[in-house]
Write a structure and sequence with these properties.
This protein is an alpha/beta fold. 23% of the residues lie in helices and 27% in strands. The protein folds into two domains: 2-131 and 257-324, 3-Layer(bba) Sandwich (FAD/NAD(P)-binding domain); 134-253, FAD/NAD(P)-binding domain (3-Layer(bba) Sandwich), CATH 3.50.50.60. It binds flavin-adenine dinucleotide. The site of flavin-adenine dinucleotide (FAD) has 37 residues, from helix 1, helix 2, helix 5 and helix 7.
């Protein structure tokens, strides 16, 4: 049985893994994919020691650090459910694994589900971060990856010299729009508020762009993504109810993030945003279960904060494991 299972493959999970292996724990990291939001972060200028770097380089360095310590990492594993068992250990079921329903749950074939554990560990750190919030507009699902994207770093280069829309009003939208200025022919920014909520330096950089390069449309609601095989336009409505359409080939939705916290047991406390509540030691209300990084209710989602919490969670887990010996 594992001492510690770390779920996630980014800033918080990497640090948790480094600290855990150096403390001699029998541990494993499992993740859907390595890199997380760090890999999609574009330019990073606030990671101490590196001056200016970028997300891909930093996440490669994270992985190399884990390799250096020969930490066991399994990629392509999506956790579905964590269950605390009667003996105090944690049963972790995954999508690709052997989970065939929850114990007692009625399955489609009328049989009763049986909880099978793909991993069992004495302690678990949840470092699963966040995923982008969807708008819920018509055509959004249909044109996802056919023009509609939630990752500018990944997809903006596909729209070199084309026209794109960026939807949102915070830092992610501002950064996306500025990336569009460098890459695309023209960028529309669709903001439902009368102003931006982000860093002043980004706001002034964007709002001082020439009008033929950046057109900002304030106080409108994005209604629909339209197209044929691929996206051709975005419809939005203004306060007076008038619906207009802009012709774009790409649309980048940046309207916030949703924590990947649905995998924890039902009795784990969360805040109204779905973030897992932790104390200063990254403990949840369930002994032996920890949360670190963006999935937790820590304010200010940043790489240094996620790494700090990864460290805290492991050191707390070490004390917990020692107390159970
Ligand atoms: C566009 C953008 C730019 C940013 N720029 C900066 C910046 O310049 N500086 C800065 O400090 N911060 C920046 N951030 C914030 C920073 O990226 C995050 O704070 C940081 O990545 C959080 O790390 P994390 O380990 O908590 O989670 P994440 O990086 O979100 O990683 C979560 C990991 O969990 C895995 N996972 C999720 N669900 C499951 C599951 N069910 N089963 C298994 N694995 C799962 C994912 O595959 C991923 O590997 C930026 C964020 C964005 C979106």
């Amino acid at each position: 049985m594992l001492d510690l299972l770390i779920i996630g493959g980014s800033a918080a999970a990497t640090t948790a893994g480094i600290y855990g292996i150096r403390r001699g724990l029998n541990l494993k990291i499992i993740t859907k994919e390595f890199g997380g939001e760090v890999a999609t972060s574009g330019e990073i200028g606030n990671w101490p020691g590196d001056g200016m770097t970028d997300g891909i380089t930093l996440s490669d360095k994270f992985k190399n650090h884990l390799k250096y310590y020969k930490v066991n990492i399994e990629e392509g594993i999506e956790v579905e459910k964590i269950t605390k068992q009667e003996d105090g250990t944690f049963c972790v079921s995954t999508k690709k694994g052997s989970n065939v329903g929850m114990a007692g749950e009625k399955m489609a074939d009328g049989k009763e589900g049986v909880l099978k554990c793909d991993y069992v560990a004495k302690a678990v750190i949840v470092a699963t971060g966040v995923h982008p919030r969807e708008l819920g507009a018509m055509g959004e699902k249909e044109f996802r990856n056919k023009g509609v994207s939630y990752c500018s770093t990944c997809d903006m280069p596909l729209f070199t010299s084309k026209t794109v829309a960026v939807i949102g009003g915070g830092n992610s939208a501002l950064e996306s729009a500025l990336m569009g200025v460098d890459i695309a022919k023209k960028v529309y920014v669709i903001n439902k508020n009368p102003g931006f909520k982000g860093d002043e330096v980004l706001i002034s950089k964007l709002t001082s762009q020439p009008k033929d390069k950046v057109e900002i449309i304030y106080e409108v609601d994005t209604k629909e993504f339209v197209g044929d095989k691929f996206l051709t336009g975005v419809k939005y409505s203004s306060k007076d109810g008038q619906v207009r359409e802009i012709k774009v080939e790409g649309a980048f939705v940046h309207i916030g993030m949703v924590p990947n916290s649905q995998i924890v047991p039902e009795n784990v406390e969360k805040n109204p945003f779905g973030e897992i509540k932790v104390n200063v030691r990254c403990e949840t209300n369930i002994p032996g279960l920890y949360a670190a990084g963006d999935v937790s209710d820590i304010p200010f989602k940043q790489i240094v904060i996620a790494t700090g919490q990864g460290c805290l969670a492991t050191l707390s887990a070490v004390q917990y494991l020692n107390s159970r010996k």
